[in-house]
């Protein structure tokens, strides 16, 4: 590359026009040349032999970085950079000096806004790294300025975007999104929860594991005035007392071994929102005392902190235990129980609401199928009947796992009953479940409990005979008309039809039997 005769007009080739620009100011040509050779591969380099020449260049062309020598005739580097700061504030300023004059350094930092102060003799790698950092600092500063302008101008758009996101969350976790059949036992529970959601009362959700207690808690949150605040979840059974206290209330650095920094607890993070304490019945009496104080006082004291921090949260607690029984047994504090049980909601297990199994299973099939890359799946003729005959001790969580397993083992787009596990296929949940009389309500009249036993035996026979009514009637010693009446009585007559079932034997379509269910 041929250098121009006037060093003040020196620049790299036109192909480097998009590179960051650096202006070198030094009255020594050899120093200018050395700095140029160090920087020219990464930057578009301009050079000037004096402060006056540098001002003329800056007036005609903006630069990203000014690299100036301190000792120059006519005007020192710091004095020149003071002027540059006023007239060309966008340029990042660096000064080089062979003297360690503290007054010059202080003046350069305070008055000229110096980014870096380099000492001679400089090292090429250090010089290059410093200029790169200066260019990056300028880009970051410009980015922040643009962001601030965007934020000022974009407040309406940001508010609209936030409102849209909140609307999406409400729709995703609304009470209507809790899948259930018409007339489900969940209807009354959801109606009560929706009424309670508008009031800042603590809620206790009871129910077996996997029944959807967290989903109900989220629906309460999004329907409440705290919907714009955070929804924070903690499983109390997953952590020991000391870790649970730190996770919920926070801790200060050095409070215990391993506390290397301050930790903000979940109660503080949920300020203005809702804390969902799952499996609260598993906490120890010692921790229950600490939690009770937080709920009574409305403040938390992080572990190792000298003072408490006020918090404003709504607490929704859940457990698979019957806490009233735990209170009577002395395993759960009565005062804490009344503090969290402002309103108590009991979510029934899946076996006590068999009408919900089909809609939940269909929705799970679509959702899990999409997650696994198998959209457009459907259940075969006997698949839903098989699901209906199983008691589901693990509730919806077990149902989801079973459907995911069936999807993985099925190559076709139609899920057949043979894809289910042996336990589900045969309608048995194992000895422990059988000993509890699957499907039987815990209370009820003699006739109600006998009806439950009869319905269970009928479901098992239908499943064994692949829904062939002729063989089921023969097995149970019933007439076909009597079998049909019992199926209608126990709500079993229309199950295969929902899955697209065809008559299992040639007599199903006979007019004397009526339309096939």
Automatic annotation (TrEMBL):
Q: Where is the composition biased (Basic and acidic residues)?
A: 495-510
Disordered: where is this region?
493-517
Q: InterPro entries of this UniProt entry? A: AAA+_ATPase, AAA_lid_NorR, CheY-like_superfamily, Homeodomain-like_sf, HTH_Fis, P-loop_NTPase, Sig_transdc_resp-reg_receiver, Sigma_54_int
Q: Which UniProt keywords apply?
A: ATP-binding, DNA-binding, Nucleotide-binding, Phosphoprotein, Transcription, Transcription regulation
Tell me if Phosphoprotein is a UniProt keyword of this record.
Answer: yes
Q: Does the keyword Cytoplasm apply?
A: no
Limits of the Sigma-54 factor interaction domain = 191-408
Q: Which residues form the Response regulatory domain?
A: 21-135
Q: Which CDD domains is this protein grouped with? A: AAA
Per the UniProt record, one Pfam family is Sigma54_activat
PTM 4-aspartylphosphate: at which residues? 69
* Record protein name field: Sigma-54 dependent transcriptional regulator
Which species?
Leptothrix discophora
